[in-house]
Amino acid sequence: MDVDARKLRILQAIVEDYILSNTPVGSRTLSKTSGLGVSSATIRNEMADLTEMGYLIQPHVSAGRVPSAKAYRLYVTQLLPQGMHEEELTGARRAFTSRVRDMESLLTQGTATISDLTHYTALVLTPRQSDLTVRSLHLVPVGKERALLVIVTDSGVIRDTSIRVSSRLDAQALYTIGQMLTQRMRGLTLREVREMLYGYAASSDADARVLSGIADLAAQVEKQTGSDRVMVGGAHNILYYPEYADVSRARAFMDALERRDSLIAMLRQGEDQLSVRIGAETGIPEFSDCSVITAPYRIGRGHTGVIGIIGPTRMPYARMLDMMRMFSQELTAALSVKE
Amino acid sequence: MDVDARKLRILQAIVEDYILSNTPVGSRTLSKTSGLGVSSATIRNEMADLTEMGYLIQPHVSAGRVPSAKAYRLYVTQLLPQGMHEEELTGARRAFTSRVRDMESLLTQGTATISDLTHYTALVLTPRQSDLTVRSLHLVPVGKERALLVIVTDSGVIRDTSIRVSSRLDAQALYTIGQMLTQRMRGLTLREVREMLYGYAASSDADARVLSGIADLAAQVEKQTGSDRVMVGGAHNILYYPEYADVSRARAFMDALERRDSLIAMLRQGEDQLSVRIGAETGIPEFSDCSVITAPYRIGRGHTGVIGIIGPTRMPYARMLDMMRMFSQELTAALSVKE
DNA sequence: TGTTAGCACTCGCACGCATTGAGTGCTAAC
DNA sequence: GTTAGCACTCAATGCGTGCGAGTGCTAACA
Question: CB distance B142–A162 less than 8 Å?
Fold first, then answer.
């Protein structure tokens, strides 16, 4: 048995009805509202076939049908209707770019903005940093024994953290050290910088020992570059979906969001392109009733981060894909403008 | 009718029982478990009095009693038992200080840490910054037309944001400008700095015009100093309390958390000392079934921020007060160490 | 051969009703 | 002032029932 054109149309109608109503779709209402021009009995026959093929699920005998993950997959792959109207998308674009315009605002405002605009839970994964290359390093005095380390990389991203330094060093000395470090490390990746710093700390190199906190410095670079960070925002949005009227489900969802390592793994998988993962495709059991849409963004040469949204599988895919594509483009544009 | 010693003891027993069980407390179980040595009938009489006085509420005739906000207020003011055991508190202290050790980690980890340790929703309000005084300013080149502005204040806090600058300025020029700005502005408050910068932008002062983005600079300072920021974390914790088994209540709670200005106003009110606000005392209608415990933290001379937790009025006050007091002390110690 | 009308059947859901039991207020005795 | 006893209240629970949306099947029709 294959999925012919009529079956596709019926499936599409069921999916779209269900996305709007969240109630099982019956043959009678479908034959009336879908404009397919066939009777409910015919639709019943087709629905029986689609159920047998695994595209539809009957919650119980006397209820209508609910799309399965397989149905959503087919829908997203083959049946997507046109998405958002241009003017609507433009409005969203404006809202997005006014709040997110650089790396800093992405980190502080990114998840909030995306979740506000989509009404789903938003995810932002920071780019891998260990293979960014260094353009310059600076040390800024901020206290008796503390300095701010600013690392400028080729993608314009600044990693800044406060480190300990010898109290003998004044502003001028720190400036000079910064210039020296820049000279030595320009063009190296952050990973190489880290290793070089550890080397300095171990050796007794006269130049290097000027920094009493050199190991500290290396450790900070390590911390900043070692692992990706993922941010989550708008988790409360799921409380608006009837799928989560039961608090225990909402709890399970939110607990899963706290397990950052599996989130990171999931987001990294969608690193290269706009992607939709439905139910079990997410690879996270708690999200088996959810779909995740992710989109990459690029900063500089090939360093990519990922943004994503997550919500019930019953999701207006076309609209959301349009949105995420747009966010991704805007982000990439905003972040690579910087020389 | 006054609240004599026995009434107090009964009230205390009811509050503590209810905090643990979240079920209306009946006279029979109370006479058995509380060790007061009086019969249930006697307790019933006292309970009737306490109800009349407004300390207890009957959900319905044949249910037990539930403490009113007035009862919690009396409990917190007069009846607090000893709080946490020393070793338990020490464990929490260690967990806290290992994650929150400076302003930066407070901003990134503060709410997560506090909510993890208390299992309530955590709030962190940043200190008012407009009357911090400036110690030095620095400009660090981070791209063709961008520089990082670092402002070091007397409380060691660094405000850094990226601003536009003229492309003609190299690292050395920016360094010199930073020194010049430091010389002129050292000792001024951030508010005065902001005004001075606006003044420069308006005038045609030759020195000032070197910075093509001087208005940008002032605007950034304004943005950073003008308004306090409040961070919220661990909001999902409330889903574990049966008071929020109904999703619509959880939703109302979380929506109220999004209205940052009223949150800020609420937190600012508890700026000067450890405080408990119960129900309507919070001043926020959505939190009429919640209690808020806030504690100030100080950075440098008299600049205070506030941390807080919020949860159902049925809260183990003694423990939570101990915790918040400890957080407040540790934070103040950690943030004022810096010269 | 595909489509449709008809019909018996299923089963979740809402409703009404009785039962249960925790807890109360009141009274009378101690 | 305290306590035992007792009638009373009322939310919660469980059970039976009717309703209705929706199905699968069959037979007739184009």
Answer: no
The string of DSSP letters for A64-116 reads: -BEE-HHHHHHIIIII------HHHHHHHHHHHHHH--SHHHHHHHHHHHHHH
Signed CA dihedral, B221, A305, A131, A268: sign only: positive
Average pLDDT over residues A57-76: 94
What number does CATH give the domain A5-79?
1.10.10.10
Mean pLDDT in consecutive groups of 10 residues from the start of chain B, 339 residues: 88 95 93 85 94 94 93 95 89 96 85 97 88 82 78 70 72 84 86 77 54 60 68 95 92 94 92 94 96 91 87 97 97 74
Assess whether A13 (CB) lies less than 7 A from strand D: no
The reply to whether domains A5-79 and A130-225 share a CATH topology is no
Q: Is B186 on the interface with A (CB under 8 A)?
A: no
Nearest CA in chain B to A116: B258
| Fold of the CATH domain A86-128+228-338 | Beta-Lactamase (3.30.450)
With a 7 Å cutoff on the CB, does B166 touch strand C?
no
| Residue A247 pLDDT greater than 70, yes or no | yes
**% helix, strand, coil for chain B, step of 5:** 55, 20, 25
- CATH number, domain B130-225, options 3.40.1000.10, 3.30.390.60, 3.30.70.980, 3.30.420.40: 3.30.390.60
Residues 37-56 of A with CB under 7 A from strand D: 40-41, 44, 47-48, 51
**pLDDT surpassing 90 at residue A71:** yes
Per domain, the residue ranges of chain B are 5-79, 86-128+228-338, 130-225
Cβ of A255 under 8 Å from any chain B Cβ? Answer: yes
Contacts 24+ apart (CB under 8 A), A260-264: A260/A230, A263/A123, A263/A230, A263/A232, A264/A125, A264/A228, A264/A230
Q: Could you count the other beta carbons within 10 Å of the beta carbon of residue A129? A: 24
- Give the residue from chain B lying closest to A108, CA to CA: B108
**Ramachandran area for residue B303 (φ above 0: left; ψ -120 to 50: alpha; else beta):** beta
Touching check for B32 and chain A: CB below 8 Å? no
Contact: B140, A142; criterion CB under 8 Å: no
User: Is A60 (CB) below 7 Å from strand C?
Assistant: yes
